[in-house]
Amino acid sequence: MTALLEPTAKTSPGHGAAFTPSMYSLSYSPDRGWHDGQLLPLADLSLHPATIGLHYAQVIFEGMKAFRQPDGGVAVFRPLDNARRFNRSAARLAMPALPEQLYLDGVDQVVAADQGELSDDPDHSIYLRPLMFGTDVNLMLRPSENYRFLVMAFVAGGFFGDKVEAVSVLVSREHTRAMPGGTGDVKCAANYGPSFVAQRAAQEAGCAQVVWLDSAEHRWIEEMGGMNLFFVRGNTILTSPLTGTLLPGVTRDSLLRIAARLGYGVAETKLSVDQWRADCASGAISEVFACGTAAVVTPVGAVRDRDGDFAVGDGGMGPVTARLRRALMDVQQGRSADVDGWLHHVRTR
Ligand SMILES: Cc1ncc(COP(=O)(O)O)c(C=O)c1O
Predict the structure, then answer these.
(1) Do 183 and 266 fall into the same domain?
(2) Which residues of the chain have pLDDT under 70?
(3) Atom of ligand 1 at shortest distance to CA of 224?
(4) Per-residue confidence (pLDDT) for residue 16, from 0 to 100
(5) Which of 293, 298, 325, 332 to probe ligand 1 with, by most ligand atoms within 8 A of CB?
(6) Are 68 and 233 in contact (CB under 8 A)?
(7) What is the tens place of the pLDDT at every residue in 83-97?
(8) What is the H or E stretch that residue 275 is in?
(9) pLDDT computed for residue 349 by the predictor
């Protein structure tokens, strides 16, 4: 018998598969610069097997979300900050800069064309995925001369499902994500493939995510999967400083500013795993949460580690986490004043 959905149950689009129908495409060549921008139906690409990006990982990407606004319009959260990070990623990978306005035009065109895919469900958003890769067909070990920029999108529900529940995490002792002088502070494809084995180890240990430590001393907490981490100590929220080996998250920056405005102390201070464990045991750290475009703000309830597992607070979502999560979503969804000018309203007709 076919299972019927309860009338009140809602289906989640998940994260990463409910693609919208359009994509934006723009090409780069040394003689023409950026050219041939066009909105196209989302479709397969035809690539020569020697396309340089497939071999030498000259591939960068971004992630942003567009939200339905109370007036029925749609706004993208801080896309200019992502455009700037995209260009830092491009510079690191010897790729050409993309003028911010061209980046925003591509985003606007996809959102304007596909915003009808977004329901009024506040848990849903349009996740935008800009991508740039080297297209030269040549296997010499050198940077590509020609590039393609694409923007595609999917309708997103919650990254960890539509319910907000605390996740458990495994501290990775075997693998490191980034090293000084490497690419940890930019968003290139080559940072992610090598993380999957650690992510799989976390899942095998019954955890949702992996926590990355620094590569030199293997003690300092850097970030978690594709998210930045925050620790609540009394009235202060603390996160790792931007050491060059973790991604400067747009959500991280937004929460630092929102928290300061709400009267919390904010600190960008290194924290070791040992201190994390001791502070959870003493109650000095009462809450921990991860943040990112995909995960928004997600509480961390339990930690598995070689040197001993431990719980954070009562293992659920604490009041500071809940308050900051709500404050961030209120800005994104247009329920509170956009005092920082973070919303980029897209003209839909
Ligand atoms: C490694 C990593 N850290 C942190 C983040 C969070 O960044 P943001 O808040 O800009 O999404 C991401 C996601 O982009 C990421 O991939």
Answers:
(1) yes
(2) 1-11, 158-163, 349
(3) 3
(4) 81
(5) 293
(6) no
(7) 999 999 999 999 999
(8) helix 273-282
(9) 66
Ligand 1 atom with least separation from CA of 252? 9
CATH of the domain at 177: 3.20.10.10
Helix (H, G, I), strand (E, B) or coil at 46: coil
**Residue 155's pLDDT is what?**
95
298, with CB counted inside 10 A (0-12, 13-18, 19+), is buried
Q: For residues 142 and 245, give the distance between their C-alpha atoms in angstroms, rounded to a whole number.
A: 24
**Does residue 288 sit in helix, strand or coil?**
strand
Ligand 1 neighbour 130 (Cβ under 6 A)? no
- What ranges make up the beta strands (E) of 140-241? 147-156, 167-171, 209-213, 221-224, 228-233, 236-239
> Is the CB of residue 332 below 6 angstroms from any atom belonging to ligand 1?
no
The range of the structural domain enclosing residue 317 comes to: 167-332
223 CA to centre of ligand 1 in angstroms = 9
Taking every pair of C-alpha atoms in the chain, what is the biggest distance, in angstroms? 63
- Token pair listed for 201: 């180890």
Assign residue 71 the CATH number of its domain.
Answer: 3.30.470.10
In angstroms, the CA 130 to CA 133 distance is: 10
Q: Whose CA is nearest to atom 13 of ligand 1?
A: 226
Same domain for 171 and 141, yes or no, is: no
Q: Measuring from atom 16 of ligand 1, which residue has the nearest CA?
A: 226
In the reported structure, the alpha carbon of residue 137 is separated from the centroid of ligand 1 by a whole-number distance in angstroms of 31
Helices (H), 192-272: 196-204, 250-261
Distance 226 CA to ligand 1 centre (A): 5
Which residue lies with its CA nearest to atom 5 of ligand 1? 227
pLDDT in tens, 139-180: 999 999 999 999 999 999 866 655 688 999 999 999 999 999
- Residues whose CB is less than 8 angstroms from the CB of residue 349 and which lie 6 or more positions away in sequence, other chains included: 112
Q: How many CB atoms lie within 10 A of CB 216?
A: 12
Global pTM? 0.94
